[in-house]
Amino acid sequence: MPEPVISLAEVSREFDAEPPVRALDRVTLRVDRGDYLAIIGPSGSGKSTLLNVLGLLDRPSSGSYRLDGTETTTLRDGARTRLRGDRIGFVFQSFHLLSHRSVVENVMLAETYRSRGARRERAKPTSSEAAATINAAGQARKGRRERALAALERVGLGHRTGFAPDRLSGGERQRTAIARALMGEPSLLLCDEPTGNLDSRNTESVLGLFDELRGQGMTLVVITHEQEVSKRAGRRVRITDGVLVEEE
Ligand code: ADP
Ligand code: MG
User: Fold this and answer.
1) How many Å apart are CA 37 and CA 220, to the nearest integer?
2) Total domain count for the chain?
3) Closest CA to 13 of 248, 233, 242
4) Ligand 1, atom 12, residue with closest C-alpha
5) Nearest-ligand number for the alpha carbon of 42
């Protein structure tokens, strides 16, 4: 049996609040290589908390999380950060593109930040989301532009590489963000409401890309509250008050 990409066992996450919040309640989940999983659930049910745990942006209060066979809950911060950069690409509702940089430069920045540090280029990330977008794998800088161009070809934007982001449609902006997420050749693409800012035509363009990536063997986990999006996945799980249940 090959190792699953994700193996969660009895994962809980509690927040100190008054009263305390159990945002994840003994979640057990297995995601195999090439799976396309949708996580659905109402607002406040624990979806972002789960994504933060899966993305190694947050630690569970208890339970086990193995990523590509590595137990992550006992890793030190540095090792977790490296594992995240090597294995996980993030896609969020907002695209986090720099407006004064071209499309290809935005994609290249996935590696620049890692190798030179983000701080000279822009303000310190203020959220886990911002931190995640600048955390693609730190490979040698050599060939960075070529890798960015290849990633843009892969998402169907080979004809837009020199554009400014504000000249792109919403779907094209999100596909640029997906190209950036693919730069580190992640084994897992984690998406939090990736079509939340898109109309139905642009949503379709992103969903079409997910289908293609899945056809290439990518593992996709997509958080969404849109049925149009969740029904495209191969598998669905629902989270309610932190409890995760597999849909039939
Ligand atoms: P969703 O993404 O499904 O809308 P969240 O994962 O953001 O839900 O939140 C799940 C629950 O945990 C909510 O009740 C929320 O208020 C609570 N929560 C999330 N983050 C924190 C935090 N840092 N401190 C306290 N409570 C939190
Ligand atoms: Mg959320």
Assistant:
1) 6
2) 1
3) 242
4) 23
5) 1
Contact (Cβ atoms closer than 8 angstroms) between residue 64 and residue 8:
yes
17 Cβ inside 6 Å of ligand 1: yes
Which residues, including other chains, have CB under 8 Å from residue 80's CB and lie 6 or more apart? Answer: 56, 72
Check which CATH number belongs to the domain holding 231 and give it.
Answer: 3.40.50.300
Distance 141 CA to ligand 1 centre (A): 38
> How far, in Å, CA of 80 to CA of 74, rounded?
9
Name every residue whose Cβ is closer than 8 Å to that of residue 212 and which is 6 or more positions away in sequence.
Answer: none
* Domain enclosing residue 93, as ranges: 6-99+169-247
| CB of 37 shorter than 6 A to ligand 1 | no
Q: Is residue 193 domain-resident?
A: yes
Ligand 1 binding pocket includes 44 (Cβ within 6 Å): yes
- 166, 135 Cβ separation under 8 angstroms: no
- What is the bridge-based pairing of β-strands 219-223 and 188-192? parallel
Local confidence pLDDT in tens for the 248 residues of the chain: 789 999 999 999 999 999 999 999 999 999 999 999 999 999 999 999 999 999 999 999 999 999 999 999 999 999 999 999 999 999 999 999 999 999 999 999 988 655 443 333 344 556 677 666 654 444 456 789 999 999 999 999 999 999 999 999 999 999 999 999 999 899 999 999 999 999 999 999 999 999 999 999 999 999 998 999 999 999 999 999 999 999 97
